[in-house]
Amino acid sequence: MAQEKNTSRKGKKQGSEVLDELNALLGKIPPQSPDLEKAVLGAILLQSNSIYDVQGILRPESFYVPAHQIIYDAILRLALAQKPIDYITVSEELRVNNQLDEVGGVPYLIELTELIGTASHLEYHARIVQQKYIQRELIKASTEIQKASYDETKDVDDLITFAEGEIFNISNGAINKDIVKIGDVVLAAKDAIAKAAEDNSKGGNANCRGVPSGFTDLDRLTSGWQKSDLIIVAARPSMGKTAFVLSMARNMAVNHGKTVAFFSLEMSSIQLVNRLIAAEIEVGSDKLRNGTLSDSEWQCLETKLHGLEQANLFIDDTPAISVFELRAKCRRLKRSHNLDIVIIDYLQLMTSGGDSKGSREQEVSTISRSLKAIAKELDVPIIALSQLNRSVETRSNDKRPQLSDLRESGAIEQDADIVAFIHRPYYYGIAQDEDGNSTKDLATIIVAKHRNGAVDDVKLRFVQELAKFQDYNMGISEIVSSDTEVYQTRGSKLNTQGFADAMGNDNIGFSNDNSFENSTIPAGFGNGGNEDAPF
């Protein structure tokens, strides 16, 4: 019989010790099914190719009996080397690695093959074995969380992050996407095409099937930001990266009723909201900071912010947020508010969340890969801002950014579905374009990579005084008139405090700061009797 000791798996032994402690306390046996584990291993030894039916379901640690873990690990090594799998080859593999005696020798392997006569129920048995493993992991994680909760030296926020991480590790390891037949995908694609045609016949925008940016020419090129896409928006400092994505976030949430999560690692939530207010009522942000508004501007502040206050725009200003924490918060927003799009400002300020022993370039590569994985998992587009290196500044004539200018990692370019650059010629002293037109308000969005479409340049107008982007052929008065109509018909929610409630963090919201505390507020200005209003 197999000796149930695990000498070669130190990490697994620690997990087993946790379970043993809990079992001793509660007098319970961990969820397990040794007979089914034997049936699975016996079926694989009986029919060599059956390993490929369970390889995506089971891992060595899925087995409760240590001997079974060792046997399955040897089977996987043989499968990887494309060698035959039977009790003879497995016993030889174990002998080479000095593990044969640990599992009970050749007689135990023969015993496994004699337990069953067919591998017809292998996959069903394997899923039960995996379920037992997940139950054991949940017990182990809950025990670790309980132990940590009794430690009064631990910060509560760190404790919550630890608890979320423990549960997320289990759920993430338990999810495996199945291979699908192309016919099923073709049917789904046809349904999407039919829906687009139906929307078009009803007067919808057939050119924008994703989340609209609110910029006509950009949406025409991209068809909107598509689900599961990672979009990188890169530029040198002072090009207007934050202003660009803030303008988009406002357009998405207010004009199109989308749910937007904005993760700001550089600016506080109140600073972002002040920028949005300044662009909305068209006054300089310095006036908001000083409270030096005219009576008409106070009136605008009272009447024009309804759409912004009610928008589904959620702001998180956690500094140096980890991929881990970002994924957890996005998952909660997806579940509670049907999240449509995520914006991150900016990528290089994030952390990978683990023990980063490699270079910063390797860490950025891990972050970009993780963001793409999150976009696919949640089925939402993710827009991440990125810095460019100084190569742009060193070029003598052409200051247009290139893909090679992306800072710190080539993996960003590889992982992204779309890479767009913001280029303002006037910033570099180029006052006119090739046709002699002024470039003072010109901002070019250079779509340099587009995995599922064409690349091109899109002209936008950048109103520097308001830190606001808009369509190049639309004047300020036109866009304000358009927005006023939207305000009269819309109602969702910009709610930094609402995001705090959804995220379990009450440090986010207007209460952190008050940019108007030194202002002289005209009589009649206020919240109309609503104590929950932000002003």
Question: What features would you describe in this structure?
Answer:
The protein has 21 helices and nine strands. The model is unreliable at 1-14 and 476-535 (pLDDT under 50). It has helices spanning 10-26, 34-46, 51-54, 66-80, 87-96, 105-113, 122-149, 156-174, 182-201, 216-222, 241-255, 269-281, 285-290, 295-303, 306-309, 323-337, 360-378, 391-394, 411-415, 476-489, 496-503; strands at residues 230-235, 260-264, 313-316, 341-345, 382-387, 418-423, 442-450, 456-463, 468-471. Helix 2 (34-46) packs across helix 7 (122-149). The chain is elongated, with a radius of gyration of 29 Å. Strands 3-2-4-5-1-6-7-8-9 form a nine-stranded mixed β-sheet, with helices on both faces. It is an alpha/beta fold. It is 47% helix and 10% strand.
Number of DSSP strands? 9
Within the largest sheet, what's the order of strands? 3-2-4-5-1-6-7-8-9
**What's the total helix number?**
21
Assembly state of the chains shown: single chain
Protein structure class: alpha/beta
Low-confidence parts lasting 5 or more residues at pLDDT below 50?
Answer: 1-14, 476-535
How does the major sheet shape up? 9 strands, mixed
Sum up the overall morphology in one term. Answer: elongated
In angstroms, what is the radius of gyration?
29 Å
Give the distance, in angstroms, between the N- and C-terminal Cα atoms.
Answer: 74 Å
If you average the pLDDT, what whole number results?
Answer: 76
Tell me the helix content: 40-55%
Fraction of residues in β-strands: 5-15%
Q: What is the N-to-C order of secondary-structure elements (H for helix, E for strand)?
A: HHHHHHHHHHEHEHHHHEHEHEHHEEEEHH
